[in-house]
UniProtKB/TrEMBL annotation:
InterPro entries: MFS, MFS_trans_sf, MFS_YcaD-like. Residues 388-409 are annotated as: Disordered. Keywords: Membrane, Transmembrane, Transmembrane helix. It comes from Azospirillum rugosum. This is MFS family permease. Gene3D superfamilies: MFS general substrate transporter like domains. It holds the Pfam family MFS_1. The chain crosses the membrane at residues 39-57, 69-88, 94-115, 127-146, 152-171, 192-214, 226-246, 258-277, 283-304, 316-336, 348-367. It comes from the Bacteria. SUPFAM superfamilies: MFS general substrate transporter (SSF103473).
Length: 409
């Protein structure tokens, strides 16, 4: 774990800025008179940019290395933060949000590829859980910096992004080996880990929609700007409490079973929020969002851990990039219909949409597991501590005797 601390520290600062934007932009666009559909289109533009950034990120890492790639992308994000206060109208917001999506995609690919390569199969669920817990704390803190009427939050974003370069550049951490492959192979990944691939897409659709529209949802149920932004804190706070236990459990059980159970819980909670009576007190809304976040916002890390279990180490970076692209496709597809349902049916429409997505994922994973009989996983190795040089201390299976990875997981 110590060799991963610098990049995790950078991720914390970066995610604080991301959380700030998630809360600030819907409120700023609402104040400028944009409709719910326009705000949904801007959120979808983020998904488009995110997908484009994921496509380019593995090549950037291969050419520049982890440290230089992170520093260059962080500088790009700081430039975009300077331009965001100048956005005017839906088209301007869509363009700049797409560019920020590309920048965040590159940064997250570097960070998550670094973390995934620096962990090992026997403890990857816990390592990714630790990474998610620390970044969720940052996401919870980000909305506290929101001031919808001024430009101060954008200056705070620039500061956070530039500060995130320091742990990576100054601490000189031991970086993992550069990826041996940079091309995406989603078809091959689907053959190896369909539950991970489909899971990331559904997580993008459902969580991307709720995260993008949560402040708007809060305003529609009568909350103030500050209380509406605090819904994002409730979401991340709930996931913070559940991420580590779920990661620990997934290291000891079939990760697909954990994914299906979490998605099923999310479907039930979504139905509960859709049925929440009008005029419910603010604390009831916050509790509902916290419980929902404790399930759905934990799914992504479980899906990534499942995929990293079954791919060769040299393909972890393009695998993480591919999963981010799939997540971005979901984040691009979800907000517009989610916003339309919110406009048409009011707040219940948003969580009816979420319930349908969670139920579909639960059914898919359970059917896949029933169709494919599980065999012992040759790539899941017992826990070994990380060596001081940052490489895993796990023994490498002899390719002459180790069975091939199971397909169709």
């Amino acid at each position: 774990m110590p060799p991963l601390l610098p990049v995790m520290s950078a991720a914390v600062l970066l995610q604080a800025g991301n959380g700030l934007l998630q809360a600030l932009l819907p409120l700023r666009m609402q104040a400028q008179g944009l409709s719910g559909a326009d705000i949904g289109m801007v959120a979808s533009a983020y998904g488009v940019g995110f997908a484009a950034g994921c496509l380019a990120a593995p090549r950037v890492v291969r050419r520049l290395g982890f440290v230089r790639a992170y520093a260059g992308l962080a500088a790009f994000m700081a430039i975009l933060a300077l331009a965001l206060p100048l956005a005017g109208g839906a088209v301007g917001w869509m363009l700049l949000r797409a560019l920020t999506g590309a920048g965040f995609a590159g940064l997250f690919t570097v960070v998550e590829g670094w973390v995934g390569s620096g962990s090992q199969d026997g403890n990857r669920g816990r390592v990714l859980a630790a990474y998610m817990v620390t970044t969720k704390l940052a996401l919870m803190a980000g909305p506290l910096l929101v001031e919808p009427g001024g430009d101060q939050p954008f200056r705070a974003l620039i500061l956070l992004v530039l500060l995130s370069i320091l742990p990576v550049a100054v601490a000189r951490p031991v970086t993992p080996a550069l990826p041996t492959a940079v091309t995406l192979d989603l078809r091959g990944l689907f053959r190896l880990a369909p539950s991970a691939l489909v899971g990331c897409f559904v997580v993008g659709v459902v969580s991307g929609t709720v995260l993008a529209l949560a402040p708007l949802y809060g305003l529609r149920v009568g909350l103030s700007d500050t209380a509406a932004a605090a819904l994002l804190i409730a979401l991340q706070g709930g996931s913070l409490l559940a991420q580590w236990p779920l990661g620990w459990l997934s290291d000891r059980r079939d990760r697909r079973v954990v994914i299906a159970a979490v998605a099923g819980n999310g479907a039930v909670l979504s139905v509960g929020l859709a049925l929440l009576p009008a005029g419910s007190p603010a604390w009831a809304v916050w509790v509902g969002f916290a419980l929902w976040g404790s399930q759905i916002l934990c799914l992504y890390a479980l899906c990534v851990a499942h995929a990293c279990d079954v791919v060769p180490p040299g393909r972890i970076v393009p695998t993480v990039s591919g999963l981010l692209i799939v997540w971005a496709a979901g984040a691009m597809a979800g907000p517009v219909p989610g916003a339309l349902l919110l406009d048409r049916f009011g707040p219940p429409g948003l969580f009816t949409f979420a319930a349908a997505g969670c139920a579909a994922l639960t059914g898919f994973v359970l059917i896949r597991r029933a169709v494919r009989t599980r065999t012992p996983d040759p790539l899941r190795l017992p826990f070994r501590p990380l060596r001081p040089d940052g490489l895993t201390g796990a023994a490498i299976p002899d390719p002459r005797t180790a069975p091939a990875p199971e397909e169709g997981r």
